[in-house]
Design goal:
By secondary structure, this protein is mainly α. Helices cover 55% and strands 0% of the residues. It has 6 helices and no strands. Bound molecules: heme C.
Amino acid sequence: MNKHIQIWRAAGPMACMLSAAMLMLPLSALAEAPLSFAKSVQPILDANCLQCHKPGGIGYERSGLDMRSYAGIMKGTKYGKVILPGESYNSVLVQLIEHRANPTISMPFHKQSLTPAEIATITRWIDEGAKP
Ligand code: HEC
């Protein structure tokens, strides 16, 4: 047997295991990666909330909720937090976008609701710990 073939034989099982691992890694990474605020949530809030929830906007002026940054959103309003990491159902922000609170303060205020997919993204992000 020539040397080349011997090396190939030895590498065979190892190569098999490696390619199996390489196939499985990206799949499990996809299933388990928590949503990121910057990538998944901020674009939704920027498009639907930010205009009112920054200094000079009516939402910021009335409630104190500043949506310009992750830190501002986690800080909440002058009354308290609007996001409870791990508890989307009890988070005020979700209660408002799901119209579960006082209908006069549903968010976005006097505008079209977020889509079910957008709401699902936000609730999943909160339930995964509301990471930056
Ligand atoms: C057209 C302006 C406007 C837009 C757009 C808007 N808001 Fe507001 N938001 C307000 C106003 C006004 C208040 C204060 C309501 C009050 O207490 O009378 C408020 C208050 C809030 C509060 C605090 C409620 C409380 O008192 O505890 C949350 C949370 C909130 N908004 C979330 C959002 C989210 C999330 C979006 C986007 C999906 C959004 N808002 C879009 C105007 C807006």
